[in-house]
Amino acid sequence: MNTYPMKLVTIVCEAYAQDTVTKLLNEVGAHGWTLFAVEGDGSQGKRPADIKEFANIQIEAVVQPEVADKLLERLANDFFPRYAMIAFESEVRVLRREKF
Amino acid sequence: MNTYPMKLVTIVCEAYAQDTVTKLLNEVGAHGWTLFAVEGDGSQGKRPADIKEFANIQIEAVVQPEVADKLLERLANDFFPRYAMIAFESEVRVLRREKF
Amino acid sequence: MNTYPMKLVTIVCEAYAQDTVTKLLNEVGAHGWTLFAVEGDGSQGKRPADIKEFANIQIEAVVQPEVADKLLERLANDFFPRYAMIAFESEVRVLRREKF
Amino acid sequence: MDILDAIHANLLSPAVLFFGLGLVAALTKSDLKFPEPLYVALTIYLLLAIGFKGGVAIAEAGIEKVWLPALAAMALGALIPLWTYPVLRFGGKFSAVDAAAIAAHYGSVSAVTFIAATNYLKAINQPFENYATAFLAVMESPAILVGVVLGKMATKSKGGSDFSSIKTAIHEALFGRSIFLLVGALIVGWLCGKPGMDKVEPFFVTPFQGVLALFLLEMGTVAGRRVGDLKKVGPFLLAFGIVMPLLHGGIGVWLGKVAGLELGGATLMGGLAASASYIAAPAAIRLSLPDANPTFYLTSSLAITFPFNISLGIPIYYEIARWLYR
Amino acid sequence: MDILDAIHANLLSPAVLFFGLGLVAALTKSDLKFPEPLYVALTIYLLLAIGFKGGVAIAEAGIEKVWLPALAAMALGALIPLWTYPVLRFGGKFSAVDAAAIAAHYGSVSAVTFIAATNYLKAINQPFENYATAFLAVMESPAILVGVVLGKMATKSKGGSDFSSIKTAIHEALFGRSIFLLVGALIVGWLCGKPGMDKVEPFFVTPFQGVLALFLLEMGTVAGRRVGDLKKVGPFLLAFGIVMPLLHGGIGVWLGKVAGLELGGATLMGGLAASASYIAAPAAIRLSLPDANPTFYLTSSLAITFPFNISLGIPIYYEIARWLYR
Amino acid sequence: MDILDAIHANLLSPAVLFFGLGLVAALTKSDLKFPEPLYVALTIYLLLAIGFKGGVAIAEAGIEKVWLPALAAMALGALIPLWTYPVLRFGGKFSAVDAAAIAAHYGSVSAVTFIAATNYLKAINQPFENYATAFLAVMESPAILVGVVLGKMATKSKGGSDFSSIKTAIHEALFGRSIFLLVGALIVGWLCGKPGMDKVEPFFVTPFQGVLALFLLEMGTVAGRRVGDLKKVGPFLLAFGIVMPLLHGGIGVWLGKVAGLELGGATLMGGLAASASYIAAPAAIRLSLPDANPTFYLTSSLAITFPFNISLGIPIYYEIARWLYR
Ligand SMILES: Nc1ncnc2c1ncn2[C@@H]1O[C@H](COP(=O)(O)O)[C@@H](O)[C@H]1O
Ligand SMILES: Nc1ncnc2c1ncn2[C@@H]1O[C@H](COP(=O)(O)O)[C@@H](O)[C@H]1O
Ligand SMILES: Nc1ncnc2c1ncn2[C@@H]1O[C@H](COP(=O)(O)O)[C@@H](O)[C@H]1O
Ligand code: NA
Ligand code: NA
Ligand code: NA
After folding, report:
1. Does B26 fall in a domain?
2. Which residues of F fall within a CB distance of 8 Å from C41?
3. C-alpha of residue E46 to centroid of ligand 6, in Å
4. Could you give the number of structural domains in chain C?
């Protein structure tokens, strides 16, 4: 099987940011995303996920390297100052290059 | 600590495919898997996870490289044409080689 | 954007271990973690997540390489013999080095 | 103007209004979303409650009253796909597997539509046979099996892996969550009888209508989120999703009368025949006919037929019954 | 010593005691945690129930009785931020955006506080206007919009992305989950009237107080987990979170009297004015003023004002009302 | 043939039948699965309801009636591990830590078994002391602590990390979710008394039996999924899981009589002694004795003793009580 390199960008942030982050994903050219509710602890304190309104989510998107760059840049400039959030990228390999 | 390279195969697909995918994991020689419910967006549209029946799941399996190859091949041939699904692999390192 | 290499350590274990694992994360110097409930199958049998008490969780922490080493060592020595658990590390890249 | 009054009364019931509110929530993109476990909890409750009540009713009426109309209901369910399939295949130009899949949904039934129909009858003080739940229970599976067989025959060539074995379909049709809960609760209710009912009535019966209203709010949002798919399914399926229920509703009412039911029971059998499954059938079909396109069968049963039935359909079937029982 | 008796009775009600139990759970680090879907389910239930009941009450009382006090309530909500903002900005030395955010929370209202107040009145057999829910419904949004405008004016320079558009705030304030459920259920109740109520009463009314007790247990743990943040907010906000409710409570009661309400209704309007939002407002503010610090507005409304109101505040507003209505 | 009648009546109650239905679901691999939050919600409800009711009963009976039998219950719970440990260690050849873990479970109690027992008594119109919930509350922890100490003494050598500190065990045994809810609600109920009960009765009391039936359906699936583990635990533990309850049931009934309880209360104390914990104890033991094998203690308490008690055990303890109270 031929596999092709892609970037997986993972974002953990407060649930309030969901709409703006998925909008950003569309803007920078991601073709899909996956999202789930998480609990967490970080510099802005524990997020116990007890109330929907104050919960955390994790968003994952498999994207082309250029898209990952653009995405991270936008996150750093517009989102990091405002939201409890982390983001990181890693290398993954996919089968259907054209899908991402 | 000595760590050993393994592949992490991640599959995101509609919840209906759960049984057939985990069966496939057994067949190709995975020794375990982890699974959770997710929401997502992709080429086949939003999956809002409102109804159990139409929800998405993410399945992760740490496997030996050969197993990953076999797994991806079977997914590409039998599953991709039928189900809303993506799959990708990445490099991870584990401690207890014999466990995977 | 400058990105910096970090390790992502992923731990899947029974929910009972949550407090001891997050305590360990603090001890070895992780600055945050993310956690969510999962189902799974492994050498110790299926964990169907039907009862909170017998469920599985997945914990992810982005840490510096040295911290990852220490973490894995402690897991191998103190936790693997006692709990249904797997752990693995992978390479990721982050933007704000100082945060992790 | 009887029928307009009947529809009017139905539209102003809390259950239907809450369904409408859910539609509005989805269409205005309000962030109202029921968590999935709440949805599951509500379906479990509704299925257990209706099943249990039906079982107790069977115990009281005696099985000898129930078996004949139940058999008739079952036969009707199994037969419906046989005529809806060609309509879809040749009238609607659907592929064989899509036609089979949609046919399976319209032969099977929607428990919530049934519940809404009992609700309606209660609201207008029309008595009905409580054991009618038995018809709901037996009508769920046969059409699914018929549909799967139709679909398999059409797609025989493909195969290989055990994706699409008929065995999967049978297991799903018989042990799937919704049918299991319904039939299980029916048997439990039948074994307990009245003394059992006395114990659990304040939980399974008294608050039932309120829970239904809450659930229909949720169903409104679920259906509303699929309104955008209406464009994808085309005008044929749109018309199909309204005309077929009317046809099947009439047949069901008539069959109920023939099988010896009272006016109320015949209305319920009409509602059952008219309803299309959107829980049990999608699950079974997705597993056993994975090549069928879910947008077609889900959108038509969930976003067209279901809202039609609970708003306009049920009062219409009732009026048909009244006309037949004059 | 009337007021002490009133407080004593309130403190010994199941709802308040369960709230205390929740606080204890959080403080003793018990692993008691409500799953998030249960929290969502309970809020949906409470909002629908209170809204539906209010709607039925409006249908029975006639809209002409309701509109004037509702308008007064709305105006009060919109005005409160105008004086709380300078108090916070200049008295408390908060940044402009933080002051605006907190002001929005105190002008808006807490549905659970309202419910607790109706509960209290019921417990002491004090009749009240059931349609008061309408005031709750109209008081939620205006202050949020005013607060967002205040915050925007202060932070105009920054901008660019659509983070913080007023449009987002308006959509959230009008179609956010809680306001949507409340207003939607109000309309549904108003359309159904008494016949609809008869059907769903055993679900939406009879068990209501028990559900509230369960929910307050959960709210106790939520508030308790934020007790640690009390240190971060400083003594000014601590005092603000208790003094402002007393002031607004008095104004609300007085306004209720002026607008023609009875003693019970005026008490409820006092409770509404005194309450601070911790669900609708945080959501809207987080989205439209992301630069405001949530620790300030959440801790003060959730961990100070809310517990104060449900334990001491409500009986106090009632006594104020009794004094005004002598 | 009294005892057979008693068992027969119990087996045909909705609660027990729904438990059976859950077993069937698991064994036929139906995809029926309660979402975890629903399970949590149901346990919270059941524990609060039973605790609150018990607390109100204590307030009405007066603490002076309760303390003596409560003390007796507590002592019994603490003592049971002292004889079950050697039986397991030397009779069953279990390792020290496994024997200690299992012993802790059988000394502790199962709230759901207790609830099922009260249900049974209500069904056969046998009055009982409502404050018996207090015995449930005090019997949960002592055996766990004793079991942990036994296990620690056996595994002293190992240590190091704070995994297995006795402190963890104590915190878990006293502030764990289930004991916290039960004791907390007991205190709340005791503080509110009858007036509080009047408010929440339609939520916490009226629908209680129905909720229990729903919960037992879920417990049936949970137990059913562990049926496969029965092979792993061996014949000794199988026998142990049935013989021990019978023995402890007898002792409990006798002790209840000695402590001055009526027939109903003694039956409940028998049921408590006979029951094995499968929620509080596993949590505490997993945290404080992580080297013990969960398959042993979970399978025996959940898949053997629990089903035995709710189906056959409770009627048997009742007959023992009737025989003792002749
Ligand atoms: N080092 C980390 N590893 C994994 N997740 C993290 C880490 N730091 C923060 N997070 C997650 O990101 C969320 C926001 O982080 P923060 O802004 O640091 O509070 C936290 O609640 C965690 O869920
Ligand atoms: N680029 C992507 N990155 C992350 N998840 C994706 C991506 N594309 C699709 N998915 C997930 O895979 C599911 C099925 O994808 P699709 O078949 O494209 O609809 C979606 O619902 C998403 O959860
Ligand atoms: N190879 C694997 N890949 C992914 N997850 C695994 C794997 N093996 C085990 N797990 C997860 O780790 C948990 C504990 O594993 P075990 O101790 O092998 O039973 C399982 O319940 C799974 O959730
Ligand atoms: Na049908
Ligand atoms: Na206010
Ligand atoms: Na015991």
Report:
1. yes
2. none
3. 39
4. 1
